[in-house]
Amino acid sequence: MPCPLCSHDKTYKHGKTSKGSQRYRCPNCKQTFTDTFDTIYYRRQVSQEEVRIVLQSHCEGTSLRGISRISGLSYNTGVSLIRAASQKAQLVHNGEVSSVDTDAIAADEMWSFVKKQKHCLPEELEAGDCWIALSLAQLNGLILSGRVGKRTDKLAIELVTSTQGKTDCQEWHTDGWSGYERVLCTDDEVEHYISKILTQRLERTNGSLRQQTGRWHRRQNKFGKVWEQTKVTLRLVISYFNWIWVHSRLGTTAAQRADLTSQPWTWQDIATYSTLC
Ligand SMILES: [Zn+2]
């Protein structure tokens, strides 16, 4: 197999690992590696099916304890897989979502709540009201950006800036939250429309995000306990909705409709997404 670091194509077998996997060595850069190097399987004894169950269940809103019971994997293994996959999902988003063609950008926020925990230092945990802001390409339903935070101008600025890196479109449709008005009016090229009707498609996406992510359901008692975990989940869910989730009526993923890929991705594509070379 080619070297995952320098792409040199003549690598040699180099003994076995303590778990019995084949090890390789690259004569060019001297790196040793196994065939799971640079995937979330590296140094984890989990199968492809176990990874699929953990990640899919997490995106459907199953609790972390529930995932442990369903998969038979330990709680810590589940959490560590989700964190590793979330990092991959972020890299997929950074690397694959660009120059998105759309006639308009829709932005909306979902309210969530991060439970206050005792025995935590203030700097270790952000608690209380928590907003998840999303921007969507209206033409194809692709999520351009998602941010977690308090409902402040900082959240609006982060969402607008990260969205502008993904598309040249300058037409924004938002709800009446004044944060968008203050942020978007500083850019002369932006056209900004405020309406409940224009953000309908996003609200539908939010609806299905909410349906499938139990922890974000309003009025449910499955609040995320840790702010950082909400960010981890959001990164994973965004890539799930863009690349894996097939729209039941259209029969395609948002990434297909945005011409970023020719077919639906699987969890395996995210788990093994190359971050090297
Ligand atoms: Zn190499």
Spatially, the strands of the biggest sheet line up as: 6-5-4-7-8
Distance N to C terminus: 14 Å
Largest sheet: 5 strands, mixed
Summarize the amount of helix as a percent range: 25-40%
Which fold does the CATH topology of the domain at 105-226 refer to? Nucleotidyltransferase, domain 5
Which cofactor or ligand species appear?
zinc ion
- The quaternary structure here is single chain
Write down the overall mean pLDDT: 86
Residue windows where pLDDT falls under 50 for at least 5 positions = 218-223
* CATH 4th-level superfamily of the domain at 105-226: Ribonuclease H-like superfamily/Ribonuclease H
The helix-and-strand class reads alpha/beta
CATH class descriptor name of the domain at 105-226: Alpha Beta
Q: Beta-sheet strand percentage?
A: 15-25%
Number of helices: 9
Overall 3D geometry? globular
Tell me which CATH architecture of the domain at 105-226 applies here: 2-Layer Sandwich
SSE sequence, one letter per element: EEEHHHEEEHEHEHHHH
Keywords: DNA recombination, Transposition
Organism: Scytonema millei VB511283
Family: Belongs to the transposase 27 family.
Function: Absolutely required for transposition of IS1.
Comma- or semicolon-separated keywords:
277 residues, alpha/beta, Nucleotidyltransferase, domain 5, five-stranded mixed β-sheet, 9 helices, globular, binds zinc ion
Give an overview of the whole structure.
The protein is α/β, with parallel strands linked by helices and 277 residues long. Among the domains are: 1-37; 105-226, 2-Layer Sandwich (Nucleotidyltransferase, domain 5). Helices cover 36% and strands 17% of the residues. It has helices spanning 48-59, 64-71, 75-96, 153-164, 178-184, 200-212, 227-244, 254-257, 267-271, and strands at residues 12-16, 22-25, 32-33, 105-114, 128-137, 143-149, 171-174, 191-194. A five-stranded mixed β-sheet has the order 6-5-4-7-8, sandwiched between helices. A three-stranded antiparallel β-sheet has the order 1-2-3, with no helix packed on it. The protein is globular. The two termini are 14 Å apart. The structure holds zinc ion. Residues 3, 5-6, 8, 26, 28-29, 31 line the site of zinc ion. The site of zinc ion (ZN) has 8 residues, from loops.
